[in-house]
Amino acid sequence: MIGRLNHVAIAVRDLGAATAVYRDTLGAKVSLPQQEPTHGVTVVFVELPNTKIELLEPLGETSPIAKFLERNVDGGIHHVCYEVDDIIAARDRLVAKGARVLGSGEPRIGAHGKPVLFLHPKDFLGTLVELEQV
Ligand code: CO
User: Fold this and answer.
1) Which residue in the list 54, 57, 83, 130 is annotated as catalytic?
2) 130 CA to middle of ligand 1, Å?
3) 3-state DSSP call for residue 88?
4) Which residues contact 22 (CB under 8 A, 6 or more apart)?
5) How far is ligand 1, taken at its centre, from the CA of residue 38, in Å?
6) pLDDT tens digit string along 90-123?
7) CB atoms within 10 A of CB 29
């Protein structure tokens, strides 16, 4: 059912410093920071030949990654995103198999302008999983 790895998201405290690590130390192509107020993050996209890395810095008081950074003071991998062809069919299959979808259970528009859903980490080996319809 799942297809390509769309991106790996890394939560960071200091987006400028994190961008410098990927751009200057690792020699990757990075985007300008992009504020996503509805998602509570500022994001920098790192373009790799086969996938993307998203560097996420909290934006606003209620950022969903603020708690993650309280538990992971140095930052860390926050979620992985897999592509699916049909997000509703994917959701229905996962729910039928007992997996928990976060939030309302309805897809919302993610940082790339495509429908996304998040799946409960406890059902996926301790890893928050995002599904994106492509
Ligand atoms: Co994501």
Assistant:
1) 130
2) 6
3) helix
4) 28, 30, 44, 46, 53, 55
5) 13
6) 999 999 999 999 999 999 998 788 999 999 999 9
7) 11
Q: Where are the beta strands (DSSP E) in 12-121?
A: 29-30, 34-36, 41-47, 52-58, 76-84, 108-109, 115-119
> Has 130 been annotated as catalytic?
yes
Q: Name the DSSP class of 122.
A: G
Tens digit of each residue's pLDDT (9 = 90 or more) over 39-80: 899 999 999 999 999 999 999 888 989 999 999 999 999 999
CATH number given to 5-133:
3.10.180.10
CA distances from 14 to 19, 62, 68, 74, 101 (A): 9, 17, 14, 10, 30
DSSP code for 23:
I
- The full set of domain ranges for the chain reads 5-133
Cα of 124 from ligand 1 centre, angstroms: 16
Query: Measured in angstroms, how far is the CA atom of residue 97 from the centroid of ligand 1?
Result: 23
